[in-house]
Amino acid sequence: xxxxxxxxxxxxxxxxxxxxxxxxxxxxxxxxxxxxxxxxxxxxxxxxxxxxxxxxxxxxxxxxxxxxxxxxxxxxxxxxxxxxxxxxxxxxxxxxxxxxxxxxxxxxxxxxxxxxxxxxxxxxxxxxxxxxxxxxxxxxxxxxxxxxxxxxxxxxxxxxxxxxxxxxxxxxxxxxxxxxxxxxxxxxxxxxxxxxxxxxxxxxxxxxxxxxxxxxxxxxxxxxxxxxxxxxxxxxxxxxxxxxxxxxxxxxxxxxxxxxxxxxxxxxxxxxxxxxxxxxxxxxxxxxxxxxxxxxxxxxxxxxxxxxxxxxxxxxxxxxxxxxxxxxxxxxxxxxxxxxxxxxxxxxxxxxxxxxxxxxxxxxxxxxxxxxxxxxxxxxxxxxxxxxxxxxxxxxxxxxxxxxxxxxxxxxxxxxxxxxxxxxxxxxxxxxxxxxxxxxxxxxxxxxxxxxxxxxxxxxxxxxx
Amino acid sequence: xxxxxxxxxxxxxxxxxxxxxxxxxxxxxxxxxxxxxxxxxxxxxxxxxxxxxxxxxxxxxxxxxxxxxxxxxxxxxxxxxxxxxxxxxxxxxxxxxxxxxxxxxxxxxxxxxxxxxxxxxxxxxxxxxxxxxxxxxxxxxxxxxxxxxxxxxxxxxxxxxxxxxxxxxxxxxxxxxxxxxxxxxxxxxxxxxxxxxxxxxxxxxxxxxxxxxxxxxxxxxxxxxxxxxxxxxxxxxxxxxxxxxxxxxxxxxxxxxxxxxxxxxxxxxxxxxxxxxxxxxxxxxxxxxxxxxxxxxxxxxxxxxxxxxxxxxxxxxxxxxxxxxxxxxxxxxxxxxxxxxxxxxxxxxxxxxxxxxxxxxxxxxxxxxxxxxxxxxxxxxxxxxxxxxxxxxxxxxxxxxxxxxxxxxxxxxxxxxxxxxxxxxxxxxxxxxxxxxxxxxxxxxxxxxxxxxxxxxxxxxxxxx
Lengths: 465, 465
Description:
The structure is a homodimer.
Chain A: E1 5-11, H1 13-16, H2 23-34, E2 38-45, H3 49-60, E3 65-69, H4 80-88, E4 92-94, H5 96-108, H6 115-118, E5 122-124, E6 128-130, E7 139-145, E8 164-170, H7 174-190, E9 196-205, H8 209-222, E10 227-233, E11 236-245, H9 248-262, E12 271-274, H10 278-289, E13 293-297, H11 303-308, E14 320-324, H12 327-334, H13 338-344, H14 349-363, E15 367-373, E16 388-396, E17 414-421, E18 424-432, H15 437-464
Parallel strand pairs in A: 1-2, 1-3, 3-8, 13-14, 13-15
Antiparallel strand pairs in A: 4-5, 6-7, 7-8, 9-11, 9-12, 10-11, 15-16, 16-18, 17-18
Helix pairs in contact in A: 2-7, 3-4, 10-15
């Protein structure tokens, strides 16, 4: 049986009152896309048996596969399994391996298992059970004959392909759901799709989404396999290239060709990698060159270091960094001069430069990046408004050799000074961000990472010569 | 006209292929909850006119208010406004103030306005237009007589209360949508609801959700106004107390009474504040006591400092901190001894203690917290598995006076040593987290903040005596 179309239904009152963001739907959608299974509808409802039954019937009238998350818990308002069994017209029986697993889950934690936990081991007859490696509620898949749902309803927009419909039930907690999907549901579904989708993400920094779209609009409109779609977030643009074919190899080839075409356009000036992030690109590049990097942060307060160290293996190129929030710390840890702070202030190209220089000296790294700015909401002035941020990159002399400018920078940014001091090259960027404190900090981190990456790439070019 | 029930429909293929997480739905749900407007369904569909029309009709058959996000852009696949106008049976006309705003948006950015941008200023006759302060697409509200949708369909589960239905269209980009909702939609809706909801969040750290539920189950089952609901995430439990009444004052009173009852139970051992976060509580407590805090981080790589500095005003109590990822940096910046690293390793109570001590000396703060651990995925051993993390809090002698243990710690954590060194009290916690690198780091940051907060609260108690 081949599954062509799917729907996702997320059950939980906490979604409807806005208490949680429905990340499960996005995760499952992305997974289904990769498996080549289309979706036309997604829904969320509360913990209500009547509405659940209605939604399941409606979904099964228009798709081959319905994935439901949530409502598998032990309490009275967890109704999903019971509702599905009723619709399928099958009994619920105890699934012994699940009961054993639940028992040992409680035993290993020295907890008392209450009666309602045993309810979690009850499964509709005929279900394929998915083990829960992170919690107590098992998941399941159940195939149901379409005749049970064919009520001649008018809203069958996308009639399912087959005479059998599949319902998959997954637990609501995202980490339980993801582990189950990855380990068990994906292999289960992979055999039920006749084509696969494969996506590659072309990562750009320093160009707006509309500018990228302008450059590529003809290419995007004319492409159907692979498709090209731009997405933006936090100052970055991601071009998603998606190919559909019978095998991964054919998909790879189709993607590679499209990527080559795209990188022949002017967006290549903003390109930093495929399927990566700025922090991963920084760590990869530094590893390749055998160079150590460091950070000196004021307004970003440790988040740049936090991003770099999020990358497994970053310890090979990052020994440490400092957060110098007050002027005193900038002087004490980084050797920023009293006169500099007095004459130009903490948020100035001069201070940024001395911070970057100090960080090199303090840590012995090859390249450093510093960030100082006004994250807001308070602290701005007419001369130095909220969102003004200076970013400096310092590197041992000759390593980057006065780059004319870092290649990758936010559209609002420009190079405001270069200088050499104590055998060190320093380049300072001036950025003006807008929006909230959170966003100013996020864009500052991204810009700092991009500046660091640009310096590393330049160092790589120099090394070759 | 009073609005009792609403539905949210998010339009955009990027949602269905899992390329973005639908945060708009969660935001609007939370806002509607506050306004006392109930929801029973949420859906998402792609950029498809036929399905859009079907979903609008279905939604209007079962609610008073339908909020649609997305599809207001300038391109061919943005169809929401046109579809709604067609359903309402009204013409589209140019809304001149919107056209002027769009023109000046382009002029101020020195960009050429193309013809399709003018399309964004077209509005259905009779619509209330909402200005877009962050982008080009205006939003709108339109009231439609219910008779246009009453097709006798069977799936009218929650028949709307009134004979007039309201459709609100909002732009898809979250920052545009939020600004518009906050400034214009909320006041528009506030006059159309006869009761309000008000929620207070009781924040707990160190207790599992099931344990909290066990303690409070009777209270939760018996409460209807206010309701009490537990939510968990990243090792924290949030108890949401929600009251419904005609005025905020009555809501406040109802909530206060329930909170008092809850804090009379054993969950109060894990309580750290109302409507706050660990980092906000740390900054608030430190400000109150006039004490400075600092951080020395290894496996969390700057994220603890990043969390503290996310709080506006944190500069009053946080001067800076260090990220010491390598052993060399631990020695150089924090004075961790060679012998300690050699005999006990970087991930040990001894190293954590010396890191916290070194951070106090380096920064001159009153209380410091250090974190060292194995975040994974590599680097673990049988003796020191991935997820093993030591957290130390050091404070000037007498300030916290050998706390028997920090009050707030993750269920997996326990105090493994106290000692006094150089007039400093040091307490070390041993934590064993599981799951991914990201989650180990997140739980480590939360635990470090909780340990810091516990020390501050103890210092506050001492100060009073």
